[in-house]
Amino acid sequence: MNRAYRILIVLAGIMGADGVMLAAAAAHGADASRLAAASSVLLFHACAVLGTVALAERGIVHARTGITAACGFALAAGLFAGDLTLRHYAGHGLFPMAAPTGGTLLIVSWLALAVAAAWPKRG
């Protein structure tokens, strides 16, 4: 297993842990709908990162494109969730359009995974 796969697995673990913490904060906090959304995005995409790494490592999807998609999932979920979490606790976001940028990158990453599956490694 190469270094990129291990880094992505570590990031997925961190995303999962953060997602659980945000779910707990959302369950116990007042008006915490942003935290619940951030939690869901992190937990869901942590699983997507793990699945994509497994598919790429086994050669089921085009490895480079799949790993690019997994990197996109990790970056975009962190951006989206980070913006929502900062808005909840600090009253302002990371930067203008941070959450929509993260959401758009998530969409692009899912499409990249579709391309990786349609264009497997030859040979």
Number of helices: 4
* Number of E-type strands: 0
Note the beta-strand portion: under 5%
**Share of residues in helices:** over 70%
The coarse overall form would be: elongated
Poorly predicted tracts of residues? none
The description of the largest β-sheet is: none
State the separation between the terminal residues, measured CA to CA. 19 Å
Overall pLDDT confidence: 95
Rg for CA atoms: 15 Å
Seen as an oligomer or otherwise, the chain set is single chain
SSE order, one letter for each helix or strand: HHHH
Q: Classify the secondary structure makeup into a structural class.
A: mainly alpha
- What is the count of distinct domains? 1
Protein name: DUF423 domain-containing protein
Keywords: Membrane, Transmembrane, Transmembrane helix
Organism: Bradyrhizobium jicamae
InterPro entries: DUF423 (IPR006696)
Description:
The structure is a single chain. This protein has 123 residues and is mainly α. The chain is elongated, with a radius of gyration of 15 Å. It has one domain. It has four helices and no strands. InterPro entries: DUF423. Keywords: Membrane, Transmembrane, Transmembrane helix. This is DUF423 domain-containing protein.
Features:
123 residues, mainly alpha, 81% helix, elongated
Structure, briefly:
The protein has 123 residues and is mostly helical. The chain contains 4 helices and no strands.
Topology:
Elements: H1 3-28, H2 33-57, H3 63-90, H4 98-118
